Amino acid sequence: MIQTALLAPLNVDRAPRYREAAYTAIKSAILDGRFAPNQSLVEEQIAAMLQISRTPVREALAILEHEGLIAPRQGRGLYVATLTRDEFVAMFVANETVEPYLVRRAALQASLEQLEALNQAIRRAQEAVTAIDMVGFLRASRDFHRLLGEASGNAPLTRFVVQNEERTDIYLIGSGQRIEPANMEASIHEHGAILDALIQRDPESAARLAIYHAQSLRQRFAELFRS
Amino acid sequence: MIQTALLAPLNVDRAPRYREAAYTAIKSAILDGRFAPNQSLVEEQIAAMLQISRTPVREALAILEHEGLIAPRQGRGLYVATLTRDEFVAMFVANETVEPYLVRRAALQASLEQLEALNQAIRRAQEAVTAIDMVGFLRASRDFHRLLGEASGNAPLTRFVVQNEERTDIYLIGSGQRIEPANMEASIHEHGAILDALIQRDPESAARLAIYHAQSLRQRFAELFRS
DNA sequence: GAACATAAGATTGTATACAGAGTGGACGGA
DNA sequence: TCCGTCCACTCTGTATACAATCTTATGTTC
Predict the structure, then answer these.
(1) B54 Cβ under 8 Å from any chain A Cβ
(2) How many angstroms separate the CA atoms of B173 and B169, rounded?
(3) Which of B 71-90 lie inside 8 A of A, CB atoms?
(4) With pLDDT > 90 as the criterion, what percentage of chain B qualifies?
(5) In which element (H, E) is residue B80 found?
(6) Do A123 and A66 belong to one domain?
(7) Same domain flag for A101 and A63
(8) What is the SS3 assignment for B70?
(9) Which domain holds residue B160?
(10) Residue A204: what pLDDT?
(11) CATH number, position A40
């Protein structure tokens, strides 16, 4: 069983703490689909892959567990967290509630650099669709929402939105569901429309489009649970 | 220096993990004002108070740090996190954004038991004001918002709201600010009005009152930064 | 052949040991 | 007296050791 590909050894030169590096490495592995939902995460194995001891790995796992990305299994062990349908929907609802505010603020105060960064995120999403790279598409979409949050200037809301999206993305990636290219294109198109409204400095249009986008997302993904 | 009062030894009999117990104990100590902002949190001391080793204490602290309740000091050590004025306001704005949704849902679907629990929370807040117990008042207020979130049925939003409120409460408690009894009374009155709207099953009134409440809160507390 | 008991192994949870970095204080010199 | 340097101590971060528990496999009995 070759595990090399799963996690590369950390070669952080001791300055940033191993805990942080392990946290990032494990989270990236989950979000890239290298650790699948329901897969068991063994501390010793992860430590070996990262070539550090169990201590910082445990601390990273404790944080990830608290965030809800991983969960303790019945009696023993941790696994990448799945979501029930209701939890999945709750995440989308949460973001629907928040995003209109984010885009309104962004429309009022986003800098040109921030608008350009949003544009780049859309471009990366488009490239990922072309390359049939679902993980890349989801990452670029998360980036878009994160940048939107940053442009709004509200850190807690930004963090919240991104965290919810991470959890739904993990589900999508791990469930083996394939997102229809048409759906990805639609999502990208909606992002583009929001960005246009931001450039026009039109908060109400932006908010309307954000609500539409959030609802579309929820509908598109909720369908996945039927199959 | 008698530290006995700060943290009582854990006498969890090994079933719930020490990490969880330590997390709760430390968090409670912070929210009760026993650990003040800018106070240095020394792992060894905390471990000694809880009569456990540093390992689970460190894990608990890692989580609290990730949550933002504590933060690493310049080069060395952890301290109870303070908030800048902007961060403080951002927390209130975040909750303002979310709470209208929560109360709308709660108006539609809160059970009688949940309404009664909300009523109890208001009563506890009132008792705390009478007893000139600011910490108790803030705890009861947090309970009110938490119960509101639970009644809404959206776990992520509930968690988010409570977490934000914890952070602002820590600031209020630790800053040594005294909240005017009149302000506490006003807040309780607004909670009562929201609860009435829930009982009437009137989502729009409830939402309106929630917005008013959130804005009032923000204004009342923002004033504290002037002094 | 099936089911249960028992033992060995795997894995977690906690404690302790150790190394490195930062802080504070004491001592010496200007 | 004030400043600087150096040393000791404190505290963090990581590693390792140990204990307890759960799993699994094997063997024995019915």
Answers:
(1) no
(2) 6
(3) 87, 90
(4) 76
(5) strand B78-80
(6) no
(7) no
(8) strand
(9) 85-225
(10) 97
(11) 1.10.10.10
Together in a domain, B111 and B215: yes
Is residue B198 very low, low, confident or very high in pLDDT (cuts 50, 70, 90)?
Answer: very high
**What separation, in Å, do the N-terminal and C-terminal C-alpha atoms of chain A show?**
32
Domain count, chain A: 2
Q: Is the pLDDT of residue B4 over 50?
A: no
Which residues numbered 165-224 in B keep a CB inside 8 Å of some CB on A? none
Judged against a pLDDT cut of 90, whether residue A186 lies above it is answered with yes
Instruction: Give the residue from B80, B97, B118 where a domain finishes.
Output: B80
Indicate if B90 and B74 belong to the same structural domain.
no
**Residue entry with tokens 């004002």:** B33
What pLDDT, in 10s, does the model give residues B131-190? 999 999 999 999 999 999 999 999 999 999 999 999 999 999 888 888 899 999 999 999
Residue B218's CB is within 10 A of a number of other CB atoms, namely 18
pTM of the predicted model as reported, rounded to 2 decimal places: 0.92
The answer as to whether B9 is a domain residue is: no
Q: What is the pLDDT of residue A10?
A: 63
pLDDT band at B36 (very low <50, low <70, confident <90, very high): confident
Q: At residue B41, what are phi and psi to the nearest 5 degrees?
A: -105, 110
Choose one of B65, B80, B95: the last residue of a domain: B80
> Do residues B129 and B219 make contact, with C-beta atoms less than 8 angstroms apart?
no
Q: Give the list of residues 6+ apart from residue A208 with CB closer than 8 angstroms, or none.
A: none
Residues facing strand D, Cβ within 7 A: A 17-19, 52-56, 59, 74-76; B 14, 40-44, 54-55, 58, 72, 76-78
Size of chain A, expressed as the number of residues it contains: 227
B68 & B157 share domain: no
**Between the CA of B40 and the C1' of C25, what is the distance in angstroms?**
20
Task: Say whether both B138 and B199 belong to one domain.
Answer: yes
CATH, residue A191: 1.20.120.530
Structural domain contains residue B13: no
- Mutate which of B54, B93, B95, B96 to test chain A, going by most A C-beta atoms within 10 A? B93
What's the pLDDT score for residue B178? 87
Structure tokens, A57: 């790995």
Per-residue pLDDT for B13 more than 90?
Answer: no
- Any idea which residue has 């249009």 for tokens? A205
Q: Which of A59, A66, A154 sits opposite B93 (nearest CB)?
A: A154
